[in-house]
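Late entry, evening session. Most of the bench is empty. Finally got around to the prediction I had been postponing all week. Sequence below, unchanged from the version circulated by S.P.
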Amino acid sequence: MKESFQPPANGGGNHPFHHLRKMMNQWFDERPLQKLFETLDDYFVQTFAAAYIPIEVKETKHDYQIIVRLPDVKREQISLQWQEDGLQLIIDHHEMIESSDNNGHVYERRHARRRLARLIPFPYPVAEHEVKASFQNGTLTIQLPQKRKYIDID
């Protein structure tokens, strides 16, 4: 009868690969390598994070509003560029990240820059001077005059 494999009962101390396993664990536990893995994780999270700027549109008889909720964005990071058929919304995020030890010595300094853009098309032709934009409490509101004619129904 064939016996099944049983691992060593003493925790593997005499196992031929015990020393190799121990060396590999130490190698992965070292601080520089751990920092490298953290940096790679940050890179993948930032690179593949949702890079889409959602908008909300409200249309009334008086105006047409485009609402963009940007809770983590400052006014200085936002720019709107006029185009004939819409607006180009650009968000530039730039920050410097420093890591230091308990004594205040900086051991890492890196710059992070991210640029998101979205074209917001107009539903009808609008002159540049007719477009108004405001930014308050993390909400960008773009207003266009209503040019569509609505007919009241009795």
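Two things to note before I forget:
The CA atoms of residues 92 and 115 lie 5 Å apart.
The radius of gyration is 29 Å.
Will write this up properly tomorrow.
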